[in-house]
Amino acid sequence: MGRKRTPGLFKRGETWHIDKQVFGQRIRESAETNSLEEAEKYLANRIENLRQVAVYGARSKRTFREAADKFLRENQHKRSINADVGRLKELYKYIGDLYIDNIHMGTLQPFIEARKKDGKKTQTINHALQVVRHILNLAANEWMDNNNLTWLHYAPKIKLLSKNDIRKPYPLNWDEQERLFKELPLHLRRMALFAVNTGCRDQEICSLRWQWEVKVPELSTSIFVIPGAKVKNGEDRLVVLNKIALSVINEVRGRHPEYVFTYAGRPTLRMLNSAWIRARRKVGLIVRVHDLKHTFGRRLRAAGVSFEDRQDLLGHKSGRITTHYSAAEIGNLIEAANKICDTERNAKGPTLTLLRSIDIGLFHVPAAAGGVYATA
User: Do residues 65 and 97 make contact, with C-beta atoms less than 8 angstroms apart?
Assistant: First the structure.
C-alpha cells in the first residue's frame, strides 16, 4: 500500500501538479517532476513562501516564468512582442522556474553556452539577455505586490556579450547583382530589384500593400508610405520610386488586391528563403537580403547624393519630419534615387570599387571586388 500523498497534489500524465488554496491564494501550477517526494518538497517550499508573505509581510517570491508572463500581458502592443515570445520560450528551458532573485549572469551561463553551441550569433543571444534585463528592471522598479513591495529588491547587472562575430555588410557590385538576380525566380527577382532600388528591408517589401500607395499627380508618379508599425524604427517610412522601382511596381500592379508582391496568389513571408539560398550558393555569394539595402546606400553615396537625402531615401530615423514633403521635395528625392539607375558600364553612372579582403597563404591583402569605396 503506497503512502498517502500531500493534499493538493495530483498527477497528470507523468508529471505532478499542484492545485491548492493557501493563505488566501491559489497555487495552480506544475511541480515539473515525476517524483512525488520532489513534488512535496516543491509544494512545501511554495507554502512556506506564502506564509512568510502573509504573516510577516515578506516580499513574495516569484519565478521568472511568472514575471515573463506579466511582461507579455502588459506589452502586447510592442512591435517585437512575437520575437520576445520566441526568446522567452528558449529562456524558460533554463531559468523559467528559478525565482527572479536567483537570476544573475551565473545562472544565465548555461543558457548562453547552449545558444553558442547551437551556433547562435552573439547579437541573437544579447537580444534574449536584454529581455531578461528589462523584465528584472521592471520587477525591481515598477511592479508592486499586495504588501506594497516591489517584486524584486534590486535588479542584478545583466551584461551583454562582446560582439566579436558581427558579419560586415556585403554591398553588391553590378556584376554580382546580375549573376545573383539571374538565378532568382521571377517573383523573388522583382522583390530583390525593388530592394536594391529603394533600400527597403525584407519585411517592408513582403508586407507592402497597395493601400499604402500615394499618388503624386504633379509628378505623374506615386510613392509608398509604410506605417510605422511595419517599420523597424517605428516611424512611417517614405518609399520613393526611381524609374527601376516604378517599373517593378507597374509589372505587379493588378496581380493581387491587397499585397504588392506575391507568389502563387499569396504574399511572400520572407525573401531569405530556400530559393534565395540556392541562388546565392550557385553564384558563390554569401549575401543576405539586408545587403541589398547596403548596396542602395553605397550607390547613393557614390553618386554624390547628400547625407540628408540618403537618410530620407533609406528610411533612417532623423530629427526631421520625414513623411511631410511637398511635390518639389519628392521630385528632388526621385531625381537623387534615379542617379543609381545607370550601371557602372555607363559613363553617366557612379563607379564603385569595394576593397574586400582575401587571404593568400600567410598574407592578408585587400582585393578590389566592387561596391564600397566609391569614385565618380
Answer: yes
**Distance, CA of 59 to CA of 54 (rounded, Å):** 10
Q: Where are the alpha helices (DSSP H) in 118-219?
A: 122-141, 174-183, 186-198, 202-206
CA–CA separation, 314 vs 199, rounded Å?
A: 5
Radius of gyration of the chain (CA): 28
Cβ contact 309:337 at 8 Å: no
* Matching CATH number, 174-341, of 2.30.180.10, 1.10.10.60, 3.40.50.150, 1.10.443.10: 1.10.443.10
Q: Which residue has the cell 533609406?
A: 314
Q: Give me the residue spans of the domains in the chain.
A: 9-56, 64-141, 174-341
Q: What is the pLDDT of residues 252-287, one digit of tens each?
A: 999 999 999 999 999 998 999 999 999 999 999 989
Confidence class for position 27, pLDDT limits 50, 70, 90: confident
pLDDT at 15: 87
Phi/psi at 242 (5° precision) = -75, 180
pTM assigned to the model: 0.63
